[in-house]
Amino acid sequence: MNYSYDDDISSPCEMNSNSINNIKYYLQVYVHSLICIVGFIGNVLVILTYAFYKRTKSMTDVYLLNVAIADVLFVVALPLIIFSEQSAWALGNWSCKLLRGVYSINLYSGILLLACISLDRYLAIVQARRSFRFRSSMLVYSYIICAIVWLLAFLLTLPTFIYYERYKRSETFIFFAFPEIISNSTHLPEAENWTSAPPDPEDDKHVCFFLFKDNDTAKQIKLLVPSSQVAVGFFLPLLVMGFCYSSVVITLLRAKNFQRHKAVRVVLTVVLVFIICHLPYNAALLYDLSYMFAPSECSDYDNTQLLLILTESLAYLHCCLNPLLYAFIGVKFRNHFRKVVEDLWCLGKSYIGARRTSRVTSEAYLSSRRSVDSSGNENGTSFTM
After folding, report:
1. Are the C-beta atoms of residues 59 and 142 closer than 8 Å to each other?
2. Cα-flanking dihedrals φ and ψ of residue 378, to 5°?
3. C-alpha angle 66/316/301, rounded to 5°?
4. 330 neighbors 274 (Cβ within 8 angstroms)
5. CA 343, CA 197: separation in Å to the nearest integer?
6. Helices 32-52 and 355-375 meet at what angle, rounded to 10?
7. What percentage of the chain carries pLDDT values higher than 90?
8. pLDDT tens digits for 265-280?
9. Rounded distance, CA 94 to CA 326, Å?
10. Contact, 126 vs 246, CB < 8 A?
């Protein structure tokens, strides 16, 4: 069946212009790589500190450990996604779904766990007397809360697992360019009858993105996914952190303690860094969401995509700052971290000198460290204020 079209039909915008692709490439190669390296080192050190030196004796410790795990998984998945994009997802459809899903799960869980930390600090400082007995017996429940957070993150990521597919852009060109024809006929127009030229041959490579069988599902999911990301992944944690930390600041200012100003600065820094890193990206998502199905110029589309790419890189930076803001800021945690560095240095020197001897020495050294640490005072959390 042949179709003819009027001359006033405009061709669809290119999915990615060359300038945007170049900017995205340099961000992935240089900026994202640096973020992944720094974030991996910082969060692995947090995990090692909790694994060998500081046992999780408070709810905040459990949350911090889970935040570090989420950030490590995030910075591991991100370079794999970048490599897969550069290689046209050569590993197949499973890599598309798995990597994008893991990326989304850890993004949600990491931010939601930061809200849990703010709530725990609120209970520990503002409601100290009322929550003392409650919090002392809540260590077991903190693991349950973390499990609920991970489960919620998985449920929010289900659309990614279901609708993300590996496909070629050229295969979906006609569906997006002529949706009214696809909905009324199973036949495709012949290429010689197109008023607009088909996509460039360079687009004939695999991508990993949403793929739907009908327009109704496409509109629902493409509205649901960014809406849930903005609502649950930003505004909900921001409201919780805003209420909890504002109450903490008021309580600290009333307290007669010479270190209260330092504690207030810590709280304000935590909130400001969260807003600076995540607000621009979520504002760009809201802007893109409001004009998603409205007619617009290709230049506006390109500017929106560029804004999303730049602000997304800023949001990634937060995983590098989490160890500094939450873990290393505590005096006790810094002491444990210093022991980790010293022991790693001693183990490295022993390994270079003699491999066999280093095993016995390192095991005895670590056991002595654990005995000293366990006998010391472990009261208080890593996130000391």
Report:
1. yes
2. -115, 10
3. 140
4. no
5. 65
6. 70
7. 28
8. 778 888 899 999 999 9
9. 35
10. no
